[in-house]
Amino acid sequence: MSDGAMDKLKGKGKEAVGKLTGDRRKEAEGKADQAKGGAKDAADGAGERAKGVKDSLTPDDKK
What pTM did the predictor assign? Predict the structure, then answer.
């Protein structure tokens, strides 16, 4: 499981606990963790796409 997915899962849990207990701060922390996870996933995806572009531009004998 990626770091981003772990943050999203942790955030969902915090948000749910916050909603159940009426703790708005915990709920907000959960939403922030989910956003952080989404950002990590997006950054990982961008890195992978950049690597793919580099590989496609590199001649086969230079890989």
Answer: 0.71
